[in-house]
Give the backbone structure.
Amino acid sequence: MTTSKDVFAKRKEGAIDEAYQLALQLMASPEVDEWDRKALGWCLVDLIKRDAQAGHPENLEHYRRQLEGLQVAADDEVLQKGIRNALLLCSPNGQLIKQASTLSKQGQHAQAVTLYRQAGRLGPLESQVQTNLGWDLYRHAKQLLDTEAVDFSAIRRNLHDYLKLDVEKPSLLHTCFLQLAAKLASQERLNLLKFLPLWDLQHLRADDYQRQRAEDGKEYPSLAEKVIQQAGKEAAASGDAQDLNYILPYLDAAIERFPDNVWLKLDKAKGLLGLGRHDDALAFGMAVTKAKANEYWAWELLGDIVALTDPAAALGCYCKALCCPADDKFTGKVRLKLAQSMIETHDFPAAKLEVETVLRQKEREGQRVPEAAERIASQPWFASTLANASNADYYREHAGAAETLLLSQLPWIEANLGDRFVIPGMENKPKRKIFIKTQSDPLEASIPEWKLGHKAMAIGDGLQVKGEFNEKKRFQIYALEARPIQARWDIFPRRVGVVYQVNKERQVLHFIVDRTIDGVIPLAELPGPFKEGDAIAVKVSKRSTDKGTMYRVLHAEATQERPAPQVRKEFNEAVRLSNGMGFTDSDIFIPPPLVVECQLLDGQKVAGTAILNFNKKHRSWGWKAIALDALPGSSL
């Protein structure tokens, strides 16, 4: 009796036709099993491959119909792949597709793409072939990008061809083409806004929203974030209403997902401004300006938003922009906007200086003079007006209107000025610490030192600031001014603690206020001598470090106030001795030197002073005696 094993044996001998006839006999029997179908399937695959390669297509259609009607197990991946390849050979473009697949495996993606395109002209490509073509289009584009003279037109053609394919979406392949488009757009070689509706942002994957973190801890935007941000930038630059209305909903979704990305908010503000929605743009413009308060362009944007509704505030914003550090070659547009605002308030000498500054800069750079500058310079008053020598005072005088606009909803908060510091590698940009009053301990923030202006202030002097926490939970200071105070560090609570060690060798004093606050003070910074057990009044600031919360003493002095009983207490108890150490009934530890000095006896009753102590070895809190007093009738 013939079995599937006989069929496979004949195939192994190379007798494909005989194997095929045996397989047909098996399929004609009343009881056909899975191995019988597999046997016929492999025979048909062999026959199709043989006849296609030999150039004998007359039987291919017959074999194809048999193979397509054969129900083989879906989990037999090897046979399923063989069937797919065989069916390809039966189609008019099958040989081309097979050749293209071979070239693709060899890394010859350009040649593979050419053959796939030829195959597509001969007949439709089935789904898996279209996916394979998609990957070769992408890999070919990547190869083109790595060449010295990049053929961007060929890359764009690959993008165009890909968008016509019927492939799985969302998918890794679809994402790869979005990455490719984003790279071309960043090099100004592709209009991302025209590409995205065809790609369809609805097909973004969850992974596309994931930010990347480098080994140094720096975080980079996600792919979705980058493309939406770039498209928003392009839409704002074009001013096209259709483009703006397309991208704004995606900007909204991205801002909600990435609230710390100020550039998305910038695109949103500019987009709304481009649509004439000034009131809606204001909130986003203010958010951008708060985050980038030291950048001239942020204030310029805010001025543009309120120019129609509040001309005085707009003028103030343009003045504030020019108070920020920036090279003249970047500030031409805002200077001309300010000049126009000055003209409307008849400040002609100030306006002329702004225009002349732009004209001189363009002449130095050999650039074309802006039409706005030419228009103003041609007005009758321009030639007869003597320009101001400087507009610095004008800027300062009017910049307050911009700060009022930006900070109108924020209260003044009391603060103290901290010390100066620099970040390694940025020694030319010193900063100052600012301590801000809160409902608990003061908060430490920082500002560039230049923001203090020429104020003659000492560490601990009073300030008041306007600011708020940003999306990264850092306190952002937008404005500050001096504040009269009675004593330095006035926002810090005065805490009374106890000295628990004086280290004369290291010239430092250790103190403790409670179980959360302790610290070290150099003896040279103290107003006088201290000893263990003395009360000490301190004002401290705290900061978070890799080692936990650390406290820094800003001010310290002796005091007659009693420390809290939680850190220093008097005791009167019997003592037990063990290995030269003493312990009272309530487990107050008496150090060996004190046991020897006072000649303590086991069971003796003693009185003294104890302070709170942290045992590092056992990582536990306890009490330690620092002084003992003689008791009536005792040997002390």
Notes: The longest strand covers residues 535-545.
